[in-house]
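Hello,

Our lab assistant flagged a job as stuck in the queue for most of the afternoon. It eventually completed. Since we weren't sure the result was trustworthy after the delay, we are filing this so someone can double-check. Below is the sequence as submitted and the structure that was eventually returned. Let us know if re-running is recommended.
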Amino acid sequence: MTGLVLKLAPRERVLINGAVVENGDRRSRLSIMTPNANILRLRDAIHPEQVTTPVRRVCYIAQLVLSGDAEPGDARQQMMRGIEHLSQALVDADSRKQLTVATAAILENQFYPALKALRSLLPREARLLAGASA
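-- returned structure --
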């Protein structure tokens, strides 16, 4: 079987190609067979007022593409510029790996995997910012 498999909790909502879908009362599993479908778990969504850090900014741009609110071409440019800036601050091997994964995904117009790789940097960014303010 190919495609993306979503495992949804009861009442979990997901945005699929611009349509909000809500799961029923039980856990379920959906197989998304359409290549390049735009999918965003609403529990993972970053709200505009939460876009306060460099990693969140780049994640938000990817999220806008997945929700259909931004053109992939314009977003690709902004995300690549953001990743370039992030690569100057996040120099450890694991961060570099995630930035490389995100870059490759963006170049292939795969915004969900890019978002997933970038989201993995959020805890690291929070630690760095907390250390800088202390």
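-- support follow-up --
The delay was a queue issue, not a problem with the job. The result is valid. The chain has a mean pLDDT of 91. The chain has two domains: 4-43, 46-133.
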